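Recap from last week: sequence in, structure out.
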Amino acid sequence: MPKPKLDDLLQESNSKMSTQITKDIDFNISLNRQEISDRIQDREERKKYAYRTFIFLSIFTAFILFIVTAAGFSEVINFNLEGTVLISLITSSFASVVGIFILVMRYLFR
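Predicted structure tokens:
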């Protein structure tokens, strides 16, 4: 008689363990799916902000280039800037462009 009772206990224990293992596996699968979804969303956000940063920096650089070109044609269009002002404009703009680029790219791709 004790043997069937032992077999019943063993079978019950195996079924409980099997149920718990199945729950753990389902939970891990759910977590993995969520992590994959998060990574896909992160990748899309990175693409979007990298593109926006590129557009902003391109427009900013084009504007500075326009000002420098206008200063070069100062006789024709009557736009005059002194040399020190142009040097300050170019160096501060370059520092701003590099700074923005480094900050945004470090944040996006860390």
